[in-house]
Specification:
5-stranded parallel sheet, FAD/NAD(P)-binding domain, globular, Fumarate Reductase Iron-sulfur Protein, Chain B, domain 2
Length: about 500
């Protein structure tokens, strides 16, 4: 049932029969067990389940699922390989456009992207594309079937990638695929960016990240950690003094936001960024084995309802407090977190207080937070985001005991690169301005992608932007360096290409 045995022939099923196959559930650790450990919660498909799920795909003539993927994975092709039991080949098919399949299969919101476009979703549940992506990537890794990447002859061009998060890793792989020499500079001591410091191990195991990093290194990419660009060197110095021909900025959005209420500077009040970094990257949950503890009291309050808030709350519940409560100023319907993450949090014992916002925090004589004053909200007219604006209800204030407060209210762009590069154009929020078509910033030869130019989005969207920037950078280098290479065009939406082929 794999490359080392007889390849299976796909079952001869009609589209109607395929549609009658129910979507296969993902086995998980039981909530009462997993809330006491940091092991991965979803356990993954086995081979038989994966084939059954893949057989649900009706192989549409116009596969809109590809158009729903920011990195344009050939989804029908890899799913068809799964139906045949050719799991490693399926993983290799994905890697033609995405070098992080094991990561994307775990953390990407497929329900809002490729699976949303699945034709089955009109009457049935969509094919579990993300779960299949995770399965084939894990199968390839666990069965030692990873094939070393093939890279073209060197072009002689040298590229600096600043940041080793999803955007930086993707830009690096895309430029290495084209024959350019790539060096990644990472400010922290561990490569991976938000994948490593922002996402808990029960959602994304460290071994999975490290395996994807090793694949990148086999492409010839050099990764240098503990290198803070903006302090070690400016982008200008990278090009003029260190010999780089072009630069990709993928520094992400790690600047925390606070609500600016009294008492938010008390001890025991964290940004989700600091809290998760100390736990995920520095191993605080293993204290005293790790020497970087984090304080977690008995009554934890998390403010926000995005995926980061769920990560903070679900991490906290594993540290053994009496209760963990998420407070959000809108309702569950407006919560930006994935439905799966909210459900997992509820199953694990996290409480939710919707339509609630913080007003003030009070501390003890040692300046540790002990109590919070909150206010009930109601929804008014839609704001610029299209969501209904939360409005305070007069006279609805109330107090709760809190000894740990975590703010997960979104992130801004770290100002370090901008401060070191005055000519780099940004908007009023510090978000880098770059061409949507090429990724080029206001500085010639400097490109950007990911959260640094969106202010915070998803892993896969950051990767998609990095692919655009890599193509733009490659075409720019062809002109700048006179490379004898053809220029590349952006991929055409599959649905449009299919319609064209029918006409011709």
């Amino acid at each position: 049932m794999n490359e080392d045995s007889t390849v299976m022939e796909p079952k001869t099923l009609t589209p109607r029969q395929r549609m009658q196959i129910p979507r296969q559930p993902m086995p998980e650790q039981k909530p009462e067990v997993r809330r006491h450990n940091f092991d991965e919660v979803p356990l993954g498909y086995d081979a038989e389940t994966a084939i059954t799920e893949a057989n649900r795909c009706i192989m549409c003539k116009v596969p809109h699922c590809i158009d729903g993927c920011p990195v344009f994975i050939d989804i029908p092709a890899f799913v068809d390989l799964v139906t045949r039991g050719e799991f490693a080949r399926a993983a290799q098919k994905i890697k033609e456009t995405n070098i992080l399949p094991a990561i994307c299969g775990r953390v990407c919101p497929q329900e809002n992207q490729c699976e949303l476009q699945c034709v089955l979703s009109k009457k049935y549940k969509p094919v579990a594309i993300g779960r299949l992506e995770r399965f084939v990537a894990d199968y390839e890794r666990e069965h030692n079937l990873v094939v070393d990447p093939v890279v073209p002859p060197p072009t002689g061009c040298k590229i600096a990638v600043v940041g080793s998060g999803p955007a930086g890793l993707t830009a690096a792989s895309e430029m290495a695929r084209r024959g350019h020499q790539v060096v990644i500079y990472e400010a922290l001591h561990q490569a991976g960016g938000v994948l490593f410091y922002g996402i808990p191990r029960f959602r994304l195991p460290a071994g999975v990240i490290n395996s994807e990093l090793e694949y990148l290194k086999k492409m010839g990419v050099e990764i240098q950690v503990n290198k803070v660009i903006g302090k070690l060197a400016t982008p200008e110095e990278l090009m003029e003094e260190m010999g780089f021909d072009a630069i990709f900025l993928g520094t992400g959005a790690g600047l925390p936001r606070f609500p600016r209420v009294p008492g938010e500077n008390l001890n025991g009040v964290y940004s989700a960024n600091e809290y998760l970094t100390r736990l995920n990257l520095m191993g605080a949950y293993t204290f005293p084995e790790a020497i970087t503890p984090v304080f977690c009291g008995k009554r934890v309050a998390v403010f926000g309802a995005g995926n980061t808030a769920m990560d903070a709350a679900r991490t906290s519940i594993r540290l053994g407090p009496e209760n963990v409560t998420i407070y959000y100023r809108r309702t569950r319907e407006e919560a930006p977190a994935r439905v799966e993450e909210i459900e997992h949090a509820m199953q694990e014992g996290v409480h939710f207080e919707w339509l609630t916002a913080p007003l003030e925090f009070y501390g003890d004589d040692n300046y540790f937070v002990k109590r919070a004053r909150l206010q009930r909200m109601k929804l008014g007219d839609p704001d610029e985001s299209g969501r209904r604006r939360p409005e305070p209800i007069p006279g609805s204030e109330f107090g709760v005991d809190v000894d740990t407060a975590i703010f997960a209210l979104g992130f801004g762009v770290n100002p370090l690169i901008k401060e070191a590069t005055p000519d780099l154009e940004t908007d009023r929020r510090g978000v880098v301005k770059a061409s949507a078509e090429t990724g080029m910033t206001s500085i010639d030869g400097v490109f950007a992608g990911g959260d640094v130019m969106t202010g915070g989005a998803t892993v896969i969207l950051a990767m998609g932007q990095a692919k655009i920037a890599a193509r733009g950078m490659h075409n720019w280098l062809i002109d700048k360096k006179g490379l004898n290479l053809p220029k590349e065009k952006p991929p055409e939406p599959v649905s449009r290409a299919k319609r064209k082929s029918k006409k011709t």
